[in-house]
């Protein structure tokens, strides 16, 4: 369960009370930050990443908190998994995360393990490994897996079931797909006149998030 001290959310955001957090994650080691009018659906899970995931170990640091950041007017659908590194370990992988806000003691820092942008939709059962950054106006399809350290630019589409290998950089306005559960391949650069351009995408996500928020309010479901 998501403890209150793990959450920092805008008043207009909806965060389901049924979010799952691994028992080994202490409240003071995680911060879920959610922007205005964003929706975090039930059964989203925040989990400890597999220690065997490919990553280059960095210098030992003490972490104040692992940050999972979701922008405004974005949706994280049911059963998505957001992975963070094991905060019990003093040897964290600095390459997999970017320092956001150091404290007075430089050994205690706030580290972004996932950054999901504005007006972005992450569909059901997607798995996002540590260090992933997803830009604005994106769609990540159902059942996708984004490997450690993946960077997805703005206005991108990732087709359902696609696996993007660790460390991959997806340029803005790119469509990515894979067949048969294989590794993702860049299909095309999207034309600026397509529906993923900023204006239409913003209107679409506002419509979706506002509909979901109204539905939640009508059933008395609200948490943040």
Describe, in short, the structure shown.
With 224 residues, the protein is mainly β.
Keywords:
single chain; 224 residues; mainly beta; UDP N-Acetylglucosamine Acyltransferase, domain 1; 8-stranded mixed β-sheet; 1 helix; 9% helix; globular; Dynactin subunit 6; Trimer_LpxA-like_sf; Trans_hexapeptide_repeat; Hexapep
Describe the structure.
Strands 1, 4, 7, 10, 11, 14, 17 and 20 form an 8-stranded mixed beta sheet that branches. The chain has an 8-stranded mixed beta sheet with strand order 2-5-8-12-15-18-21-22. It has a 6-stranded parallel beta sheet with strand order 3-6-9-13-16-19, with no helix packed on it. It is built from 1 helix and 22 strands. The protein has 224 residues and is mainly beta. It is globular, with a radius of gyration of 17 Å. The chain has a single domain (4-218), classed as 3 Solenoid (UDP N-Acetylglucosamine Acyltransferase, domain 1), CATH 2.160.10.10. Strand 10 and strand 11 (108-116) form a beta hairpin. It has one helix spanning 198-218, and strands spanning 7-9, 14-15, 20-21, 30-34, 39-40, 45-48, 62-70, 75-76, 81-84, 98-102, 108-116, 121-122, 127-128, 132-134, 139-140, 145-146, 151-152, 157-158, 163-164, 169-170, 174-177, 185-189. The longest helix is centred in the C-terminal third of the chain and has 21 residues, at 198-218. The relative contact order is 0.15.
């Amino acid at each position: 369960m998501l403890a209150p001290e793990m959450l920092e959310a805008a008043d207009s955001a909806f965060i389901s009370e049924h979010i799952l957090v691994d028992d080994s994650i202490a409240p003071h080691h995680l911060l879920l930050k959610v922007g205005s009018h964003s929706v975090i659906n039930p059964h989203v899970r925040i989990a400890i990443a597999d220690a065997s995931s490919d990553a280059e170990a960095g210098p030992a640091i003490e972490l104040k908190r692992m940050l999972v950041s979701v922008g405004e007017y974005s949706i994280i659908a049911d059963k998505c998994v957001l992975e963070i590194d094991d905060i019990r370990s003093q040897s964290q992988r600095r390459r997999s995360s970017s320092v956001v806000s150091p404290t007075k003691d430089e050994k205690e820092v706030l580290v972004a393990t996932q950054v999901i942008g504005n007006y972005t939709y992450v569909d059901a059962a997607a798995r996002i490994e540590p260090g992933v950054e997803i830009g604005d106006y994106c769609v990540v399809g159902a059942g996708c897996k984004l490997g450690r350290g993946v960077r997805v630019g703005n206005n991108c589409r990732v087709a359902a079931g696609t696996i993007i290998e660790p460390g991959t950089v997806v340029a803005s306005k790119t469509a990515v797909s894979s067949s048969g559960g294989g590794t993702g391949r860049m299909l095309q650069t999207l034309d600026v006149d397509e529906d993923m351009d900023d204006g239409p995408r913003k209107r679409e996500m506002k419509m979706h998030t506002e509909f979901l928020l109204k539905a939640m309010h009508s059933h008395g479901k609200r948490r943040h």
